[in-house]
């Protein structure tokens, strides 16, 4: 699924959730408005990233923020997050309490990503690593091992979440997508507005425990 298609799914899922809430009259929980804004931000970022490829080197605001995030400052916990959606969720939850750094550059395919020496260094000097899980970040195992950080706390954002059979209620996976590197099931749970709420909760609880 391309970034443009993922952006379309995100927008449609936001509409579905909002329509359901209007019909049922339910009040939003404290985390849902944050998630809605993050999903819209992610959708915009994906669209901008795709349209810029091959035409300009400009980055989306989200990408510029992620790349320019500084190393941990004095008195702040250093947290590394694997890729853009997880970075945005972690950044929103952590606020000013922690310095959050991204490992996979925005616009880069996480399935085929090869870790860099910079990634190893970032993990070696971090207190917390936040990942999507469900087998998505295949580059992590060897990278974490090479970092040799015995004090590192790993947060699996998808703990307690079953892999998807479909990417969303709107767009179904093709046979090729089901077979592509997803031996543990479809790990793109951040495309589901209900499951992403659980991801944010898992990140919050993990950061508190760390």
At a glance:
It is built from 8 helices and 4 strands, in the order αααβαβαβαβαα. It is α/β, with parallel strands linked by helices and 210 residues long.
Describe this protein's structure.
The protein has 210 residues and is of the alpha/beta class. The protein is built from eight helices and four strands; from the N terminus they run αααβαβαβαβαα. It has helices at 3-24, 32-52, 61-68, 84-94, 117-124, 140-147, 175-179, 193-209; strands at 77-81, 98-102, 128-131, 153-156. It has a four-stranded parallel beta sheet with strand order 2-1-3-4, with helices on one face. The longest helix has 22 residues, at 3-24. The radius of gyration is 17 Å and the shape is globular.
Structure summary, number of beta strands: 4
Query: How do the helices and strands follow one another from N- to C-terminus?
Result: HHHEHEHEHEHH
* Beta-strand percent range: 5-15%
Helix and strand content put the structural class at alpha/beta
Question: In percent, how helical is the residue content?
Answer: 40-55%
CA(first)-CA(last) distance: 34 Å
Number of helices: 8
Please indicate the count of domains. 1
What is the CATH domain class?
A: Alpha Beta
Output the strand order for the largest sheet: 2-1-3-4
**CATH superfamily heading:** Nitrogenase molybdenum iron protein domain
Which stretches are low in confidence, meaning pLDDT under 50 for 5 or more residues running? 13-29, 43-71
CATH topology: Rossmann fold
Return the CATH architecture: 3-Layer(aba) Sandwich
The major sheet is characterized as: 4 strands, parallel
Using only C-alpha atoms, the radius of gyration works out to 17 Å
């Amino acid at each position: 699924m391309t970034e443009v298609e993922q952006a379309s799914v995100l927008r449609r899922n936001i509409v579905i959730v909002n329509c359901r809430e209007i019909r049922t009259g339910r009040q939003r929980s404290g985390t849902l408005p944050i998630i809605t804004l993050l999903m819209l931000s992610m959708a915009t970022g994906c669209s901008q990233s795709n349209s810029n490829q091959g035409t300009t080197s400009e980055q989306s605001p989200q990408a510029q923020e992620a790349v320019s995030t500084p190393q941990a400052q004095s008195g702040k916990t250093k947290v590394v997050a694997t890729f853009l959606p997880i970075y945005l969720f972690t950044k929103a939850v952590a606020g000013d309490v922690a310095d959050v750094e991204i490992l996979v550059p925005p616009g880069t395919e996480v399935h085929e990503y090869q870790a860099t020496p910079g990634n190893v260094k970032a993990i070696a000097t971090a207190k917390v690593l936040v990942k999507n899980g469900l087998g998505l970040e295949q580059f992590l195992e060897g990278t974490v091992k090479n970092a040799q950080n015995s004090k590192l706390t790993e947060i699996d954002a998808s703990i307690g979440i079953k892999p998807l059979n479909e990417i969303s209620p709107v767009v179904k996976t093709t046979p090729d997508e089901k077979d592509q590197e997803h031996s543990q099931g479809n790990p793109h749970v951040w495309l589901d507005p209900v499951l992403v709420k659980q991801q944010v909760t898992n990140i919050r609880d993990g950061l508190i425990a760390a």
